[in-house]
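This section describes the prediction task in plain terms. A model, or a person checking by hand, is given the sequence of a single protein chain and must write out its three-dimensional structure as a string of tokens. No templates, partner chains or ligands are provided. The sample shown here is typical of the held-out split.
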Amino acid sequence: MEILTGIKIENQEDLLKAAHYLHNRGVKRVFITLGKDGGVFYSDGVLVGHIESPDIRVINATGAGGDAFVAALAYGHLEYITTDEMAKLSMAASICTLSHKDTINPNMSIDRIKSIVKEIK
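The expected answer:
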């Protein structure tokens, strides 16, 4: 995020500044993953939130941080779901990927991801 905005993310205020910077340049929805201990920050210019990462047993991290997360964002965009729902859906897709030994979890499905969403606070 620092490369895109010039803002080093160290706290909640920095997240808000980065989101504001991107919104001012035409980005409608901002999602910033904060690593295994930080969860996901999201903003659509009106709705702003942060979802904590639940405690999970990581079996395979390949694809979780990027591919599964972004795929779920794309799905959420195409399905016209809200920004907070997109953040939860993306986190759930990452969790689904992290929880299986294979890079592509054979149990990955929208129904499985939605069941994980129910467990996210």
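For orientation: The helical segments are 2-5, 12-23, 64-78, 83-98, 110-117.
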